[in-house]
Amino acid sequence: MPKSIAIDGPAGAGKSTIAKKVSAELGFIYLDTGAMYRAVALKAIESGVDTKSREGIIRIIDNINIAITHDNNSQKIFLDGSDVSEDIRTGEVSAGAANVAAIKEVRLKMVELQRKIAGEKDVVMDGRDIGSYVLPNANLKIFLTADINERAKRRYEELALKGQQVNLDEVKEDMQNRDNSDMSRAFAPLKKVPDAVEIDSTSMTIEDVAEKILYFYKNYANI
């Protein structure tokens, strides 16, 4: 039976970076579920549909085609046949992703694909409801968090490196709004489940966090 590690946590906690490193160490597939919701948001934006409009988003997902490929542990996401791996990383798309992720019909469609992948291959999957909803029987559940100021700083530096014109205070505000939206949504909200190991990465290096997760997987995972 395929093995799985679920990594949940708020925006900017380092989930994707850590998940990529852990999956590479274990030879697992890395699945960034947030990218899927970003793709839905991008589709809405390009179609002129308000990402908060449940009716409009439901119409979009009836015809949306999202595909994920993996090459040397690098994930690429395709929207209607086009590689949008970079296009989905803007601030506008990030805000839109929080809106569409709160729509039950969107989550059900994305979760179906996520579970299908996890049912076929060993995965490290990161998101906000992986351990609580997507993979409730994951072999190991991690809740990765960090101080909001540190998370905002990390995201600011990430966007600045990509050449995007960003303001640290605005990044922090967007992140707080995303956190509030994720934790307060009615369906599959962001939360730490009782059997998850919480790791605060505020003062930890990427290597330290990855090493800790690998330690828990090798010594305490339900395998």
TrEMBL record:
A single cellular component GO annotation: cytosol
Record key words, sorted: ATP-binding, Cytoplasm, Kinase, Nucleotide-binding, Transferase
EC number per UniProt: 2.7.4.25
Coiled-coil region list: none
Matching SUPFAM superfamilies: P-loop containing nucleoside triphosphate hydrolases (SSF52540)
One annotated GO biological process: nucleobase-containing small molecule interconversion
Residue span(s) of domain Cytidylate kinase: 5-217
Catalytic activity from the UniProt record: dCMP + ATP = dCDP + ADP; CMP + ATP = CDP + ADP
InterPro entries: Cytidylate_kin, Cytidylate_kinase_dom, P-loop_NTPase
Pfam family, one: Cytidylate_kin
GO molecular function: ATP binding; CMP kinase activity; dCMP kinase activity
Residues annotated as binding ATP: G9, P10, A11, G12, A13, G14, K15, S16, T17
Location of the protein in the cell: Cytoplasm
Primary residence: cytoplasm
Name of the protein in question: Cytidylate kinase
